[in-house]
Amino acid sequence: MLSIKNLHATVDGTPILKGINLEIKPGEVHAIMGPNGSGKSTLSQVLAGHEAFEVTAGQVLMNGEDLLSKEIEERARDGLFLAFQYPVEIPGVSNIQFLRTAVNSVRKHRGEPELDAVGFMKLAKETAKRVDLDISFLKRGVNEGFSGGEKKRNEIMQMMLLEPRLAILDETDSGLDIDALKTVSEGVNANRSPDRSFLVVTHYQRLLSYIIPDYVHVLAGGQIIKSGGRDLALELEDKGYGWLGINEAAAS
Ligand SMILES: Nc1ncnc2c1ncn2[C@@H]1O[C@H](COP(=O)(O)OP(=O)(O)OP(=O)(O)O)[C@@H](O)[C@H]1O
């Protein structure tokens, strides 16, 4: 599904990613943990194609194709989805309009029939219900005035509608209350399938007790310095990052 080899990336000339290697097979859920500023969001953004980051070395294949040579839109159409750490507001564009355009663009690319306004509204209402989001949010501007938790639920609703091949969730648990955390996790779990993979960036083991990962990786200083099973997340919760030779101050 995703193969990252020796990925290096800079922002404004400063190296952030310093040789990332990661293989994600279809159906797998990988969690990335690590201290603040270690490069987790940068990795998510580089995969999604954010132009602020320059890839200086390495290769990323998604479904066997060179991901890095593709435009952002192409990556999304090919099934890459990024749920942002800080979802952006798009005032003036209604959520439903935005979602329908995005979903139909993906459907068209896959050779599937586009959904008309009525059909899409029905689907969107059902999906909103699954993430406990009132249907009034469909009519509002994208994320406009949404609370932190509502934005995250909205991101998961988008993901469910877009049916990606690879979903990257960048700190989707931050700002969620306990009920929202469960709802969002259930949404993710309901979307797990043998041909869909997830890369879940989180600071907290708590999320990973709901979304059980196949692998957990520690990203520090722009490199994956340790990988393990879900027990690694428990160990990190217990011991912090110091035992891995990472400066505790940087991990706070
Ligand atoms: N646009 C940017 N301009 C300058 N520096 C940046 C930019 N984006 C990221 N960085 C720097 O890159 C480093 C890695 O940031 P990144 O957001 O990837 O870390 P993170 O591991 O996701 O951190 P956190 O856990 O705090 O969210 C940080 O030192 C950050 O300041």
What does this structure look like?
- Keywords: ATP-binding, Nucleotide-binding.
- This is Fe-S cluster assembly ATPase SufC.
- With 252 residues, the protein is α/β, with parallel strands linked by helices.
- It contains 9 helices and 12 strands.
- The strands form 3 sheets. Strands 6-9-10-3-11-12 form a 6-stranded mixed beta sheet, with helices on both faces.
- A hairpin with a 2-residue loop joins β4 (53-62) and β5.
- The two termini are 33 Å apart.
- The relative contact order is 0.19.
- Bound molecules: adenosine-5'-triphosphate (ATP).
- The site of adenosine-5'-triphosphate has 12 residues, from α1.
Short description:
The protein is α/β, with parallel strands linked by helices.
Q: What would the keywords be for this entry?
A:
252 residues; Rossmann fold; six-stranded mixed sheet; four-stranded antiparallel sheet; 9 helices; 12 strands; globular; disordered C terminus; Fe-S cluster assembly ATPase SufC; nucleotide-binding; ATP binding; ABC_transporter-like_ATP-bd; FeS-cluster_ATPase_SufC
